[in-house]
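Hi team, as promised in this morning's meeting, here are the two structures we talked about. I've kept the exact order from the run log so nobody has to guess. The first one is mostly here for context; it's the second one we should focus on when we meet again. Sequence first, then the predicted structure tokens.
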Amino acid sequence: MHRLIRICLLFPLLWPLALAAQAPSQLDSLKLGESRVERTAQRLVDAGFANVRAVETPEFTAFTVENDYYKLPAEGFARAVQILEGAGLDESKPVKIIGTSYKVPEVTITYDPESGSWRTTKRLDASWDAVRKQKMLNNSFGKVDLTVYPVVSLINLIITQVYQSCWELKPALEVPLWPGARFSYQLVIPVFTDFFENRYHYVHPGFITLSQRFRDPWHLNIQGKFTIGQFSSNSYGAALEAAYWFPNERFWVDTQLGVVSTAYFVGFRWKYVWDPQFVWNVAGNYYNAFLQTQFTLRLQQFLYGDIGLKFEMVRHFRHVSVGFYAEKGRLYTASGALASSQPHTNGGFRVHISLPPYRTKRHGYVPRITTSGQLTYDYNANNEQVYYREFRTEAADNLVSKNYYNPYYIDGIIGKK
């Protein structure tokens, strides 16, 4: 009798365990004719990844993923690693995740069966050549985002007021097109401003750009972007940006070359003046993986003809990047003559914050409304209005986004998953 009572008491606890032991797991419940690799690719799609492809060869198993649900690519890659680790794949050979941006490969994340660890590199290998030919799941073509960029600007130019401020919302319609291409149209909506310039008081267009990302087809590790349209700093034109990572990927060089002209806001519209000038910059970069800190020394010709050096140090946290900069140069006229015998110096700091929510689900082709991946604040110590003027080609370009595909930053996030 006592034994029967004990069995009755333990039955509610033992019954779920018995069912779990008999029922196949989600990973093992493959459809008829479906391979484990195909099942894993579908799980990546279900987790919110776009442009997913998969292939298995005798040498490796490879997948492509593109972040759509996760705002920060590194956090998305960490989730993809978790999925693959629990997928029951053949761990006797390397497993590779190729992270793409607008279908252009950015990084390769490889599982090494000997060490049992994952490592990220900017370089591509035979896995990309094999997987790029496979069928694509959850194609991102034509899926629209309405991204809201909140911006706060402060200046200190008059003695009767400590700071003048400008609070704006800048929603941007962003549409991925063919591989590597994106169209963006931004509208600037003033919320509050006591700036004197007319354009800060009216709703007007911001960035209007068509960009094309590319990667060299010879696996030389050269990546870049070509953009035409209306940029920041009252400029418009065409610009080429490119970067090369050395075999020791703590070091890389990058450049920006542009032919730009000036746009003025008159009344309720922009007036475009065709006075083209060639601007350029080239930089050497070093990344300290232990401190997650980037050091950059850049030689640059700025928008109004001044040429100088700019040193920058940026510390990258998970959702925040904080940078300090110093710059020194000379002012030249449009004809190339030296306008001042005294060099000009400037400095300041930059704080760029990735805004929540950090995960945003998409519902088919319904336009998705979300906040930007960053809130930016730049402090200019000398309140320079002429010297050291730069331009950005897209609203999403900043300290946070330019570090999205840094292999050491990604490894740091994957290691903390």
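And here is the second protein, the one for discussion:
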Amino acid sequence: MDTTTTVPDSKRSMNAKADVVAGSKATDIGLLTLAVALVVAGITAYYLLPATVAPSVHVLSVIGGLIAACVAAWFTTVGKGVRSYTRETQFEMRKVVWPTREETVRTTLVVILVVVLLSIVLGLIDVILKWAILDHLLKL
């Protein structure tokens, strides 16, 4: 009796361990240092551009620095890990069963009703305790 079964490729990655990507540590350090330098350069450009330049150019310098930093970090081991995590997250999101509109509305109404009822109960408890303590116990 053959106990091996074939598993489709779409199911194979579901329980897969995280891949360890071999990368040069020096390259990663260099690229991450470059990414930090690009962010600092974008922020520095924001403050060093003359006031006569349009404010949108100031903002674009920061955004450009952030985008360039993300591109540099994309090729590091950390970036590969983020890409792997994103792929796995997208795979898991395909398995989510979202509630229908009717279920969502019904659940929301139940939550609102419970909140209102608990607010009334807690308010009544507060009024009763205030009446008992302030009006009767403290007047003795």
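Starting points for discussion:
The mean pLDDT is 86.
The chain has two domains: 1-96, 99-140.
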